[in-house]
Amino acid sequence: MIPKKYEFIVFAFLMSFFMTLLMSFMITFINIGLVEDFLVRWLGAFWRAYIIAFPSVLTVVPIVRKIVRKLVAQH
């Protein structure tokens, strides 16, 4: 098991991985359709996007949490 102190990094890694996987698939499919080399193009788009997505999630999530705390009523 991964120690609790790495929870946020694991969260960011998995969130950015799955979102990038899904979004790169959809955008590639919308742009070129299901062509012969679709898998190669999709994976190319995925890794290029992922190198941006992972650090973005690490940066954006704490900001979004602060905004949400201000917007959501506290009991």
Summarize the structure.
By secondary structure, this protein is mostly helical. Helices cover 80% and strands 0% of the residues. The chain has two helices and no strands.
Properties at a glance:
75 residues, mainly alpha, elongated
How would you describe this protein?
- By secondary structure, the protein is an all-alpha fold.
- The chain has 2 helices and no strands.
- Helix 1 (7-32) packs across helix 2.
- The protein is elongated.
What's the helix and strand layout?
Elements: H1 7-32, H2 38-71
Helix pairs in contact: 1-2
User: What amount of the residues lies in strands?
Assistant: under 5%
Question: Helical stretch count?
Answer: 2
Query: Whole-Å distance between the termini?
Result: 34 Å
**How many strand elements?**
0
What would you report as the Rg, rounded to the nearest angstrom?
A: 16 Å
Give the H and E element order: HH
